[in-house]
Write a structure and sequence with these properties.
There is one protein chain. The chain has 13 helices and 17 strands. The chain is α+β, with helices and mostly antiparallel strands. The strands form four sheets. It has a seven-stranded antiparallel β-sheet with strand order 14-12-1-2-15-16-17. It has a six-stranded antiparallel β-sheet with strand order 7-8-9-10-11-13. The chain has a two-stranded antiparallel ribbon with strand order 3-6. The protein is globular, with a radius of gyration of 23 Å. The termini are far apart.
Length: 508
Amino acid sequence: MPCTTLLIGKNASYDGSTIIARNEDSPNGEFRPKRFVVVEPDEQPRHYRSVLSHVEMDLPDNPMRYTSVPNAVLDQGLWAEAGVNSANVAMSATETITSNERVLGADPLVELAPALGKPGEEGYLAEVPGGIGEEDLVTIVLPYIRSAREGVQRLGALLEEFGTYEMNGIAFSDLDEIWWLETIGGHHWIAKRVPDDSYVTMPNQLGIDEFDLDDALGDQENHMCSADLRTFIDDNHLDLAVESESPFNPRDAFGSHSDSDHVYNTPRAWYMQRFLNPYDEVWDGPDADHNPTSDNIPWCRQPERKITIEDVKYLLGSHYQGTPYDPYSVTGDEHTRGLFRPIGINRNDQLAVIQLRPYRPESCRAIQWMSYGSNAFNALIPLYANVDRTPEYLSNATNRVSTDSLYWADRLIAALSDSAFASTSAAIERYQQSVGGAGHRMIAAADEQVGRLEGDDQSTDNLEVRRILEAANQELSDKVRKETDDLLGEVLYTASMSMRNGYHLSDN
């Protein structure tokens, strides 16, 4: 599953929040309609079976309420993707990442082996389930964890027990910490705490480039890993460091080094860091410190200024604006435009940006910002996570195209605007700014209303608070629906004026 992730430590964000954000992108040639919902404890399964890998497991009997962004069509499973539980712990799963032949030879992926023949027949072989994967991870982890660190520990144990059939990166956050976990082969994993003053860019590659094995196998202050990782590395000659005192580099040991990375992956990290650190180094030209094909772009770095929600949206909807690689550029040429895979691509299905605010009480701390469809043409909408239900406009998508669903309205706007980019871009920008401004106003008003409540109960169990937050979400959803309908009408008209059967001699 091609995606792009951006993680922002609490001292790097504009308001002291931890922020985890990820585009979920469909594979080439398909869309997957998405819904934003709340899963109540009595709706959470106690026994789980994966649709894709057929892996089965019993789940704990004490799940928490949590938000989820599942598929609208369940033929390939739930794919819950991103959410926040009632302990204000968030999870995003997953960023598909890369590996290499040495790792996959040493610890093969755990893939479903279908049954051969029929029971009772000679030579019959029973089905062997595969491991866990993106379809499963939020559902089997998020309802049961009370910190980001616990998320790493629970998922790590599940990976060691059941294995996985794919390489993935997974983010966990709470009020104080963000952790990033990367799978290695079928059963191994590493995890690193994002420095509080830094951000992380992840473009479908194994990303961690420095790792302290002593810490991971000891105090686990900032690193964790599977218990036998050192032996696994040594036995399979995976450490590629020339000097023994060099820090261990997981990207070299476990990651990919392919030509396709230079057109599909590394340019995205280059563009995000170019935007967030424009003056720290040279990003363009023959003397650039890093260029779009560099293999050594850092996993994390400290930004030159605090990072806002609007920065996150801009980057995760970007298409190399201001460079010759922009497919909509007038400065590039046929050789450069479209050379690299954009971040804001036609196959974006949803973007979830989860913000955990330290200055608000538990009851209204978590905001899950959502957008659907191609992020170059949509707006990011804030929604309180501590609720029992979400607005229908964001939760009712099916496989039927309908402007009653924000998912499909955003898809239509993108398809129309792409062919008339220059003439619709101003309308898109006005819409994005208007919706964003309305979102910030909604948050301020609802926060104030919650703050006026009498009593000391500011926990996520406070039903009165949840009703206030639900009403705020609904009011914003109604406003967004009107503005989205208006935008759809405007871009439909503009795009239709470029139809090839148009005739410009006046009919009057």
